[in-house]
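Ticket #4471: structure export looks truncated?
Reporter: QA, pipeline team
Priority: medium

Steps to reproduce: submit the single chain below to the structure queue and open the exported record.
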Amino acid sequence: MLKKLYRTPGPIRWTILEKEVVDEIIFRTIKPRNRLILELMARGGMRIGEVLKLTPSDIEDRKLTLRAPKSGKEREIVFIPQKIADRLKEYITRKGIGSDQRIFPISYTAGREVVNKAGKVVGIHLKPHDLRRHAATYASRSGVPIEIVSKVILRHANLSTTQRYLGTVSDVEAIRWIDNLYG
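Actual output as written to the record:
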């Protein structure tokens, strides 16, 4: 009985959002600010706190510099798709945001609420980290090497941390990959 009580818990497995669900969440978000926040998390693998700290001076084309990231390093780099970079620059220009002003001057709680409301629109309970996990899992399932997912998209120091993010593979998906490799 004591052994049962004090055993170490198994690995945590989250429900990973499918690409279609994430696309629907993003496309049904009308407010440009909220859509950009969601896209940076889902397509750039960014944490909500990282998104909310961004300033225009952190942006260089498709490369975002994170100052004082969670890792404890002085800075980290995030790469984003060109379409998002273009929309982000347009948003900054349209809003007249100064180079050292925050692009999204809302609180962490308000940012979480943006994500939560976006999930409710499609009928799911959505948390900010769900979008980061989606970015990792989608990249991995699209054939991106685990080292790139870990070091570039998620910016983890260890591959073992990244492996906890990735969803379990269904039998159908396993067969599809085997067919792609050897079929």
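Status: closed, not a bug. The export was complete when the record was re-opened. Leaving a note from the reviewer for reference: The longest strand covers residues 63-67.
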